Amino acid sequence: MNNPVTTLIRVPALAVLIALVIGITAPTASAQGTSGTLPGRDVPARTLPVPATVSPQMQKIIATPISPNWRTVPQSPDEWRASVATAAAAAVKNLPAMRDALKVKIEPMTIDGVKAFMLTPAVIPPQNRNRLLIHVHGGCFVSGPGESGTSEATMMAGFGGFKVLSVDYRMPPDHPFPAALDDVMTIWKAAQKMAPAKNMAVIGSSAGGGLTLSMVLKAKMDKLPLPAAIAPGTPMSDLTGAGDSFQTNALIDNVLISYGASCDVRAAMYANGRDLKDPLLSPVYGDMAGFPPTILNTGTRDLLLSNTVRVHRNLRRAGVIADLHVHEGQAHGGWYRDYTAPEAKETFEEIARFFDRHLGK
Amino acid sequence: MNNPVTTLIRVPALAVLIALVIGITAPTASAQGTSGTLPGRDVPARTLPVPATVSPQMQKIIATPISPNWRTVPQSPDEWRASVATAAAAAVKNLPAMRDALKVKIEPMTIDGVKAFMLTPAVIPPQNRNRLLIHVHGGCFVSGPGESGTSEATMMAGFGGFKVLSVDYRMPPDHPFPAALDDVMTIWKAAQKMAPAKNMAVIGSSAGGGLTLSMVLKAKMDKLPLPAAIAPGTPMSDLTGAGDSFQTNALIDNVLISYGASCDVRAAMYANGRDLKDPLLSPVYGDMAGFPPTILNTGTRDLLLSNTVRVHRNLRRAGVIADLHVHEGQAHGGWYRDYTAPEAKETFEEIARFFDRHLGK
Q: What is the H or E stretch that residue B167 is in?
């Protein structure tokens, strides 16, 4: 069996990505998904002001400058582990105050060998008492371990009034594909004993959005029951670099910044040499016929704007009920950066209403 | 009574816009709708390749270069009349072939003093026999007179299988606000004799999208029946320059190009000195409670991406059924530029399905 850590240095895609990250000067890292023959559009340098068409909290999030060190990524598995742990420790510090404010309780648990957290709001409205949401956290398939991955699940529980089971799936550098997906599937199978599938939905953003789509593809393949609805937010639905907003929103999105940056290096660690066009890695290439009703969120400055709307169109072409919400001025996942922003409450309440329409009771 | 032609030179907004158009070097013309205190985002110059994630026809539309003369606009009412007439004559030349291909017949008519065209498809499916759509054309409130304004209506009739009545409303420089809206309302009132309101929808893009929203606000004010559904495409919902994509998609959108360019000069001629925040001019500021189900279309490169998604959010906040569709790589109104593009058929069929769900028979 390959040791995934030593395997990493043999992955050409990763080497290319690291080269791009080190050497990049202009945000045109993507060689995928662009027409090679037609002339491109020259856009001059400019300064984009912060829009006043969003809340003061969101203005602050939008104004956050891009780190001058965004091209620097850890260079070894150990450096990755240290970097992920530092970020996780910082994220965890903010969670107790949010749980208090949203009146959400957290319980760690292990289900069929997979770690998870149950987020339970103080008040569960009657229609949600027999419902359960499964949450798949983001973090580019490498970040957000343990409690640090529960922020979005906490907001969903608090604003939506649902019990939310957040999967603490295994991640690279120690556990590349398909460990994360396997763990999500294990939890999905175990959850069938907690609630009927028709009363359950799956929610997740970024890598968690990609995994939410991939888990439905996998459940279809394995003839498992499907959730009654899903809410993939700004999904990493195409790891190949295709999608026009990888170009148009490069260096405008202050979270993902540019294709080939840290997030894609992490995604390549997860893919571990597997063809990035595999629908279980890049679900935009999957067959979405028979998918459950889907609510998608993205923002006008999101590097994954295109890959969210491409999923939306694929779902609609397959005849699936699919609602798209695009948030003014927001970069990647803006709506779950600050639970005090009205945009956070509004978005999770919108998701909750969608689930209420499509879930059994 | 003021002569609208001589009134024009007294309009400060127009003077400011013309100054901006002549002097502009960077696409930051908007003084509206941005935070004055928070730091903006510096984005370097770059060349955006044409995405391969769209059809070959759409790639060609996206690759169309921005005219080097885009800052030049007509300088007098006579120059405007000549410019509009030239563009209209060119547009009309392409229409017979499209009508043939889509099997749509055109009939000019005058209804209660307002000029209009009825577009009738060769085959009207049974569920659409007692339905009628009203179409309000685009052209920044100044362009698209006569038959030249019927292109979108022809696609809606042909791809959707509906009878479509396209309003040839009066326009500046001879007829500023509220002439266009008055003409739309006259047709709406007259249409009540052709079909019940519950069997009718209103469709229009760009200025026509703004007018579609304004006509619902006006019908609410005047206690008239409302249409059963509306389809404002990339609506000019905010003439003040607010909306983040006026900044982010400036010089990326090859149709509208930048706030303060030709389209906004035309809009200022229409506004004729009236406060641009008036909801009948900028319907994003209107009260959307009680609006009919609404389907919105825009594109990831659309200068009006923000002002489409802001309308979507306002509708949802008001509890209105509102579906948003954002099209990969498309600038302003990409889906109605070429009826042979699969994106055109797909979009009009999506609108038709939405109408089928919400219109009486």
A: strand B164-167
Contacts of A51 in chain B (CB under 8 A): 33-35, 242-244, 247, 306
| b/e map B294-329, b = 16+ CB within 10 Å | bbbbbbbbbbbbbbbbbbbbbbbeeebebbbbbbbb
Question: Global pTM?
Answer: 0.93
Segment 13-42 of chain B within 8 Å of chain A by CB: 26-28, 33-35, 38-42
A328 contacts in chain B (CB < 8 Å): 243-244, 306, 309-310, 313
Domains of chain A as residue ranges with CATH: 4-22+81-358 (3.40.50.1820)
**Are the beta carbons of B127 and B356 closer than 8 angstroms?**
yes
Angle at B335 (CA atoms; ends B29, B236), nearest 5 degrees: 35
ipTM for the predicted complex: 0.92
Rounded to 5 degrees, φ, ψ at A272 are 55, 40
Per-residue pLDDT band at B289 (split at 50, 70, 90): very high
CB pairs under 8 A between A and B: 209
Tell me which amino acid residue A357 is.
R
Residue B283's nearest CA partner among B202, B219, B220, B212 is B212
Residue B98 distance to chain A (closest CA, Å) = 25
Q: A153 near A120, Cβ under 8 Å?
A: no
Tell me the per-residue pLDDT of B296-330, one tens digit each, with 9 for 90 and over: 999 999 999 999 999 999 999 999 999 999 999 99
Q: Which of B59, B244, B313 lies closest to A35 in CB terms? A: B59
